[in-house]
Design a protein that fits this description.
The complex is a heterodimer of chains A (314) and B (352). By secondary structure, chain A is mainly alpha-helical. Chain A has 13 helices and 2 strands, in the order αααααβαβααααααα. Chain B has one domain: Orthogonal Bundle (ABC transporter involved in vitamin B12 uptake, BtuC). The chains are: A mainly alpha (314), B mainly alpha (352).
């Protein structure tokens, strides 16, 4: 089993970890914003899927992957808006709504794919984002291998996550968001528009998850295939919780999940004598173990999943 | 909830389904298909003749179990998204046990194999229940992860230990005595549907007449109050998830023993997830699971013939399902639509 050590302690695993963590971390940050404002977001999966689809759609029709990215952000935002209207305005159960949204997104993207491309499993290839090779950074030994050459979305994503952390913990807006999720009555009393904050956060979460989804279709594969998010939205939610509803924490959790995923993929190609199905289970098992260990320490926003009614009448 | 509440809820669910089908019609029309052709095939495929009706019943049967499983967990305030995975372990356990016991009389074989399926499902339900009760890990995330694990694990087990020597990854065919008997000869309508209805009757009785059912509902309505009132919330949570898992496991058992007559990896077209839609529509009533499962079975079988004869992708039905869940989850939608209509007619007379 000398091959086993080569598989686990391979520097390319870290490069792959960065690559695979980006979409999950972006969606996890979306989850953090949504849930910090008090809205449970199981719909991240559907938002990612919509983003992945819209990205390919935009790139297909304009020839520009960057316009595809814009459409993906918009598409995720639309799904976020649907969740927001149902969960906030219509006071539907957040979790049931999220599951409905995921089923809807799965059907809608596959339906549209067949309507537009007349193909059942996957779309044609579209123009992808390619990679950036960062001068200076790429020449540093080890670090250059890990961080030097990636899709532009990796760098944009990391910057957004840092920005998200600043917004959430170092700005008045972030304070308002956190207060809304902790104690909406108090937030309302001091003049915060609870619903507006929640709408903003849920739509933002859709935009971020949509961007993460576009990463799957425009940075990793350059096409869309049926249900290509493959549970990453749920992993993002787990990363959000494990990361303590904090964009940076979510990034750390995503790194951890993606590291196991990277090892899993390397094991498959390295012909480790272990069945593919067993190897594929590793990231999911780890997610459960981590979640089981993490929840003890972290506490969700106090008013998470509750419906807020301004005023006390009605 | 009294009969009236059930009736008005059902009326609202019917409106939600109609609304979803209307949106579906718009999608069909704008995609360049004929709405009339699509929906006449949907209707004929679901109800037009003995064969169609039998297909609808066959497709409703697993949904009856998964819907019941999700609905039961709802009663305890738990959201079991893991019915899909529980169905897979149940299906494999039943198939393997039914094959292994081919020396026993058929009745014993069938009963023991069904028990094995329920047991496997319950075991898979135990874990998220335990993690929720003891640690507070959200059951939605853990059950979804377990779905992936269960599907991979059953595939692995079949490939490695229970594989048919033929070219396909599946178990060997169950001998006739290990199958659920056919109810209507010549169709695949099996005893499974009867077992499903019995399960509904039994669980309805448990929920409404037993201390266990009462306590499970108390936990679902307000865990803090239930704890204060002396209910062991952790134990009821684990038990509710295990019962839910057992019922979802039986969904797999009736598939492998009554319809497919073997275990095939990736056989389920998402019965566990459709079960969520069934449960959302059924609401608090266990009996309402039966018509709700029949409705989605009809959408499924009708959708198949729509795909076959009108060339319209099945995914339309997936969308309709998602829309139904959304609409039923938001009863306020109906009153909002009514209000905005009256507001339009009265020119701003409504409440802001």
């Amino acid at each position: 089993m000398s091959g086993f050590a080569d598989v686990v302690f391979n520097i390319n695993n870290l490069t792959a970890t960065i690559r695979m963590a980006t979409p999950i971390a972006l969606a996890a940050m979306g989850g953090a914003f949504s849930e910090r404002s008090g809205v449970v977001n199981i719909g991240l999966e559907g938002m990612m899927l919509a983003g992945a689809f819209c990205g390919v759609l935009g790139s297909h029709f304009t020839g520009s992957p960057w316009l595809g990215i814009l459409l993906a952000v918009a598409g995720g935002g639309v799904i976020g808006a649907i969740l927001a209207v149902f969960a906030i305005r219509l006071k539907a159960d957040h979790v049931v709504t999220g599951v409905g949204i995921n089923i809807l997104a799965s059907g809608a993207t596959t339906w549209l794919m067949q309507a537009i491309w007349k193909r059942k499993g996957a779309t044609d290839m579209v123009a992808g984002l390619g990679t950036w090779s960062v001068p200076g950074l790429r020449d540093i030994p080890v670090l250059g291998t890990i961080l030097g050459v990636h899709s532009p979305l990796v760098y944009i994503g990391l910057a957004l996550i840092a920005l998200g952390w600043v917004v959430m913990f170092r700005t008045p807006l972030g304070l308002r968001i956190r207060m809304t999720g902790e104690h909406p009555e108090a937030a309302d009393t001091v003049g915060i528009n609870v619903r507006a904050v929640q709408y903003f956060c849920v739509i933002l979460s859709g935009c971020l998850a949509g961007l993460g989804g576009a990463y799957l279709s425009l940075a990793q594969l350059n096409w869309f295939s049926k249900d290509m998010s493959a549970g990453r939205g749920y992993m993002a939610l787990a990363a959000c919780i494990f990361g303590g509803w904090n964009p940076l924490g979510g990034l750390g959790a995503s790194f951890l999940f993606s590291f196991t995923d990277a090892i899993q993929m390397r094991m498959q190609t390295a012909q480790i004598p272990l069945a593919v199905e067993i190897i594929q289970m590793i990231p999911y098992i780890l997610t459960i173990l981590i979640l089981a260990g993490a929840v003890v320490r972290s506490r969700p926003p106090a008013a998470l999943g509750k419906h807020y009614e301004s005023g006390h009448g009605r | 909830m009294g009969l009236r509440g059930d009736v008005s809820r059902f009326a609202y669910s019917a409106i939600a389904v109609l609304l979803a089908l209307v949106i579906g019609a718009v999608l069909i029309g704008t995609s360049g298909y004929s709405v009339k052709e699509a929906y006449s095939n949907l209707l004929m495929g679901a109800f037009g003749g003995v064969y169609s009706l039998a297909t609808t019943v066959v497709m409703s049967t697993p949904l009856l179990f998964t819907g019941l499983a999700v609905a039961l967990a709802f009663q305890c305030g738990l959201f079991n998204v893991g019915a899909e995975g529980q169905l897979y372990v149940g299906a494999l356990a039943s198939a393997v046990v039914a094959l292994a016991l081919s020396g026993l009389p058929p009745a014993f074989r069938v009963i023991i194999a069904l028990t094995a399926g329920a047991g496997a499902g319950a075991a898979l339900g135990f874990l998220p229940g335990y993690l929720k009760a003891k640690i507070g890990a959200h059951e939605v995330v853990t059950t979804i992860m377990l779905n992936y694990i269960a599907i991979s694990l059953t595939t692995f087990l079949v490939k490695t230990y229970f594989r048919d020597p033929g070219p396909v990854d599946q178990t060997v065919l169950l001998p006739p005595g290990s199958r659920l008997p056919e109810l209507v000869p010549g169709t695949r309508v099996s005893l499974g549907i009867v077992i499903g209805i019995l399960a509904v009757a039994l669980l309805d009785r448990v929920m409404r007449r037993s201390v266990l059912g009462y306590e499970i509902q108390a936990v679902g309505q307000n865990p803090h109050a239930a704890e204060y009132g002396g209910v062991n919330v952790a134990a009821r949570t684990v038990q509710a998830m295990m019962i839910s898992g057992a019922v979802a496991g039986l969904a797999g058992s009736v598939e492998s023993m009554g319809t497919l007559y073997r275990f095939i990896p990736y056989f389920s077209p998402g019965y566990g997830f459709t079960g969520i839609a069934v449960a959302v529509i059924a609401g608090k009533s266990m009996w309402a699971v039966i018509p709700a499962a029949f409705l989605f079975g009809a959408l499924q079988s009708g959708g198949q013939s729509m795909q076959l004869f009108a060339g319209i992708p099945m995914e339309l039905m997936t969308m309709v399902q998602g829309l139904v869940i959304l609409f039923v989850a938001a009863p306020a939608l109906g009153s909002m639509l009514l209000k905005s209509r009256s507001r339009l007619s009265e020119k701003g007379g409504g409440r802001a």
